Amino acid sequence: MILKTAYKDLLPYRTKDGSTVRELMHPALHGNTRQSLAEAVVPVGGTTFLHRHLKSEELYHITQGQGLMFLGREQFEVMEGDTVYIPPGTPHKIRNTGQTPLKILCCSSPAYSHDDTELLP
User: Fold this and answer.
1) What does the pLDDT look like over 7-29, one tens digit per residue?
2) The domain that contains 57 carries what CATH number?
């Protein structure tokens, strides 16, 4: 089991929602069991695809930038320091409305899985 990861060693990849992600801690890679923690980056002017997770609940913690969060029927501004709870099954996406990359810590429980991610029209 890996108890510590180093950011510089983590390779980014694209998730189904279109964001660029680094898995900071994930069961499939590091041996933890019940949750995952990743950093997502949405470029200036970018928007993730509308999607939902059928089993996982998520927490988004904004560490840099600002955006517009679409959560179910709600939409609201988010900025550095804000945290958003996303219940399982809730459609969501986020748009970067700022002048810098939007960086988000994403905690998922159960851990993030492409199979649990459903893209929506």
Assistant:
1) 999 999 998 888 999 999 999 88
2) 2.60.120.10
